Amino acid sequence: MALLQSFTQIALDRAAAQIRRDVIIQCVANGSGHPGGALGAAEIIAALYFRVLRHDPARPDWPERDRFVLSNGHICAALYSAMARTGYFPPEELLTFRRLGTRLQGHPARVDLPGIETSAGPLGQGLSVANGMVLGLRLRRLDSRVYCLVGDGELQEGQIWEAAMTAAQYRLGRVCLVVSDNGLQIDGEVERIMNVRPIADRLRAFGWHTLDIDGHNLAQVLAAFEAFQRTTETPTAIVARTVMGKGVSFMENLAEWHGKAPSREQAVRALREMPEGFAPDLWTGDTQ
Amino acid sequence: MTAPAAAPVRKAMRDAFGEAIVRLAETDDRIVVLTADLAESIRVHHFAGRFPDRFFQMGISEQDMIGTAAGLALTGFIPFATTFAVFAASRANEQVRLAVCYNRANVKIAVSHGGLSVGEDGATHQALEDLAAMRALPHMTVVSPADALETERATAAIAALDGPAYLRLGRTPTPIITRPDTPFVLGKGHVMRGGRDVTVVATGTMVHVALGAARLLEAFGVDARVINIHTIKPLDVPLLERAARETGAIVTVEEHNVIGGLAGAVSESLARAHPVPVEFVGIQDVFGESGKPDELWKKYGLTPERVAEAARRAMDHRDRLGRV
């Protein structure tokens, strides 16, 4: 019973483009942020917020909503964009990102911004919280689902694997882990720093149902979420191959864009080469 | 009890907790319990038998347990996450910080094996820094009851509180020193014994030791006030300020490092409210070791005699300063 709202009519490729433009604009407007991973997760977050999630931005505390847990909280610029563009708060507020007094904290803060399901930033914690939500929803006999996004480097945190065991042990068929697998982390390539691959094989060995997809192919992203929704007794992990900095030629596949804002000139260039979103840009070249 | 000279009834706080949580759950179906392979140790196996659907065995994974508890809280439940003090407050500290406190999730962390009285298991399992670690987290309420009876009431009080709480319990049976009609309000200390010459402020198992010290001091003509601070945070500053003003000398007693726990909380508040000499009885910034609880308390100075000596030092200091 997805709520029929205007945002569900927006083409998903335009929604993903809008998220990318908003990510660049949020980062350049305040001079800081984490654009790389956020750009790479644009299709995943667009698919969730504009199609897959059962949610009502006017009622962020609706008990029967699906939940989205952003575990790699540093990519929150993409989440803030999706929330603003689906109506959780006015899009103009995106320009307050990371500024003193903002509700759009550098890493998401549940208490500050309605619609943020859990605060996140310190890596490895989101899946445990998502599992707890599924356990709680099951006790309440609600059929809501919980989606949790993590980065591939984040899988180096031991707590992820504790939580992976919990989801399998408790047969949490309503939890969906999405791994944005861009192969990069702050200090370089994940495989060279502390390998986490093969991700799907490892999760299968932990008792998970897994899917390998191209995280920028919207048809594959939607099909994977549908496959998750048909799964009842087993937790599902979608390992989505993504590109850090996707959509901006000079950012793609460069770990240095994990946590660095573009300069004004770089932002102008990025916006020029990216496809149009569905709304006018909030920033047209002025900083500060 | 009314006749403290007679051997009082002894009961372990964790036993009282195990019974209280079942009783509370009977009338509040939001209460759920998680444990990290320590169901029997913290006595929640009774709960598990009675409410199997509301009991979550998480295995040996305290960090995951705290996160899972936060998720349950965020869907409207009142989870009690149970383990030993050291594994919740130290090992899972960052999970408590982020998923519980920063989220303001309504999670209750109920731990046994606080302090030296863990005994033979030794230093690895003796939490002597947990009160400091939990107290430094915004939104956290920190409770350290004095006996089994107070544990029952503390359990009910934190269940009724909307917000994170840490409940620190001891392992071994200790004397019942409160009464059913002893007032219990979170954040309000309780004067266990009136006195004009010096104030002994204690928490947890050490309230009993403080009362013993007051009796020793009485034999020397010193009239000691004894305050039970069962809530380390929020601290009852008005009660402590009045004690400082009226007696001019304070001793803190805790089964915890003298850094950051009761000593820290009391001194920080009195430094601003009404500075007076404060002596710290507690663990002097060292790790514990194996031994019987009574032997350990003796070796580390947690006895009525040592508390009484500290009271004299505090009074002497006050008198040297020429204040009352």
Strand order of the largest sheet of chain B: 3-2-4-5-7-6-12
Q: Summarize the largest interface: chains and residue counts.
A: A-B, 33 and 30 residues
CATH first level of the largest domain in chain B: which class? Alpha Beta
Q: Please, what is the CATH homologous superfamily of the largest domain in chain B? A: Thiamin diphosphate (ThDP)-binding fold, Pyr/PP domains
Number-wise, the strands of chain B total: 14
Distance N terminus to C terminus of chain A? 43 Å
| Rg over C-alpha atoms of chain A, rounded to the nearest angstrom | 18 Å
What is the count of helical runs of chain B?
Answer: 12
What is the N-to-C succession of helices and strands of chain B? Answer: EHEHEHEHHEHEHEEEEHEEHEHEHH
Biggest sheet strand line-up of chain A: 1-2-3-7-6
The CATH architecture assignment of the largest domain in chain B turns out to be 3-Layer(aba) Sandwich
Give the C-level CATH assignment of chain A. Alpha Beta
Number of helices of chain A: 10
The share of residues in helices of chain A is: 25-40%
CATH topology of the largest domain in chain B: Rossmann fold
Per CATH, the architecture of chain A is 3-Layer(aba) Sandwich
Q: Structurally, how many domains make up the residues of chain A?
A: 1
One letter per element, helices H and strands E, the order of chain A comes to HHHEHHEHEEEHHEHEH
Please identify the structural class of chain B as seen in this structure: alpha/beta
Q: Classify the beta-strand content of chain A into a percent band.
A: 5-15%
